[in-house]
Specification:
alpha+beta; 3-stranded mixed sheet; 24% helix; 10 helices
Amino acid sequence: HDVAVNLSIEHYLLQKSHPESTILFLYANKPCIVIGRNQNPWLEVNHALVKNSTALVGLPGQPGHDGGLERDKVKVIRRRSGGGTVFHDLGNLNFSVICPSAEFHRDKYAEMVVRAIRKTNPRARVNERHDIVLDPGPLLDKNEHPDPQDTHKTPYAFGRGPLVPLKVSGSAYKLVKQRALHHGTCLVNSPNISGISQYLRSPARPFLKARGVESVRSPITNISNQTFENPSLTTQGLQWQISEAFVQMNQLVSTDMYISLGSSSPVAGLQETDECASGLLDDHLLQIPEIATGLKELEVADFQGNDMVVSARVYLKIKSGVIISSKISTSKHVDIASSERVEFDSVLKEKRVMDIDTFRDLMEKASLPGLQDDARRVSGWLDLMLGKEPGSKLHEPGRV
């Protein structure tokens, strides 16, 4: 249930599996935030909350959960595919399909997962963004029911306000020569569902201008939401439903097939004649050099405030996580403000943001007699925005 291990296995399968094979890989992770390859973590994550709180690992009875209300720190990691930022815990099942690039289509395997979900929740469908949503409204008149095989429509109403579709799965993709990866989330019964949006809401967002792809926020729910038809669905249950849908789609004999990764073959157990495979992975994965190397590439260090001074001006130019230049002042007087900018820049320039314990301690090194109080308020605000000191606690649910 280690996100770095699972993403490294996934990448290994993408690189090393036979170019004509199609692989289904299902896994769940302990609490973590996974950001897309082209995203800015300061825009996407509440690092103060990550640093100063814990999340529920999962619900009793879930695989990898030993009962009780176990909590753990939230890990932050960057994946190799694009897409938006997502939150994982053991109540979220991740699906990954690796297939020949010629067979890749953004909706193909989302539709497969919808067919699996519909075995217990008929409200699921693929929307125009290739996400999986649940239509929350009442059942439509029978003459308005779509074809039951249509995975893009349901017999339930949806619209705005209380009828807005609720997202349960988002996807990301990676295409390489001859191979394609489609992986996605499935919020089955996350115990953190009401607080996920707080982790994915950066307090620095209104103040940052940065390159990168921003996440599109949507209202979310669990597939097993008690207000719907299937409160008993578990990640184990959905795992089997997706496996069965994969078997049916690819006309396999059964799901009793195993992928065994070993040193004697890129994917020993996936022979060149195998078109599809589904099953379990062996325990010795970390002995495979490519997977061990992949682990070292993935982890993103966590980053981690006070009211701003009304007259304050704060500008940081950051490149590759290093402060290239700064323009910070607190005074209304031009000459004093100019001196402040020079002094603050002298202590901030060329510092790596992730290596700064707190901006407060660093900026106090600037020689600014009589302005320490205002400087502390500005540096405290920076600590809050960039996750250097305790921040907000979980409260209301929202959009992610």
